[in-house]
Amino acid sequence: MDIKVDNKTIGAGQPPFVIAEMSGNHNQSLERALSIVEAAAKSGVHALKLQTYTADTMTLDIADGEFFINDPNSLWKGNSLYSLYQQAYTPWEWHKPIFDRCKELGIICFSSPFDETAVDFLESLDAPLYKIASFEITDLPLVRKVASTGKPMIISTGMATLAEIDETVRTAREAGCKDIILLKCTSTYPATPENTNIMTIPHMRESFGCQVGLSDHTMGIGVAVASVALGATVIEKHFTLRRADGGVDSAFSIEPQEMEQLITETTRAWKSLGCVQYGTTNLEKPSLKYRRSLYIVEDIKMGEVFTKENLRIIRPGFGLPPKYYETLLGKKVSCDVKKGTPVTLDIL
User: What is the pTM of this model?
Assistant: First the structure.
């Protein structure tokens, strides 16, 4: 079930594969985009993700009706869809320098294509894998086009029903994709922990027989860490240099120091999973001596009996286990015993 991408392995036997999503946080500056790449690599991420589209491939240049964002709760209220995508898109001529910088720094660069021309363009850059964004999960022609490359696909599932996910996964597999990773996602920006429902992760893994991760739009790192405990193998987070710098996605993006913390804590969570284990581990064996056991707490002469006054359950653990306490009360000792002696069978 492991998936190889370039020289990296994604799977349950590896630390979580962490993706920094640049999106529009470059604020239309290539210099800033490259600085984001460098900060992401320095923070320890495994991959950086772009989005490949233009305003014209996304929507129509209409600034009213359903093409205008009036939702009072939206970060992008007051924009037309077209103007929003003009602000957020990553110029296609920037892709190669960004891909090259990622390669120099040892991290994977890939993208979410939003139409077939974007897939062809990304193929010319030898993109090693692809992401299908949540809003495109029902675009089955796009899914087929990406799947036909034969490269691994990460599919975000925000808003998708179980039936829609099933249709998309079947379509991708039938079109030639062997390696699929689904991401649990909540398509609100930002998302709240209460609306994230990461208990879906193990159910999704069992339902579709593939790896499952998290595309996380919540603030902070707690949800990402918790998702690892439920089996997430991939964590995707929007990433920026500083939220204060603004940008279309900055409000729900994390900064370099937070990304470092996310990587540290998700790796710790992954390491803690281990396996089903009872009893003493090798590292715990030295601690056994600090268990309670039976000890003589007053000097006793041969032939005297154990009483509540001369026999106690105390630390350390070199005597018989406490479960024998009641059994030994009233029993005789076979020799003189000094205070501080652990009770063993040879003094009974």
Answer: 0.91
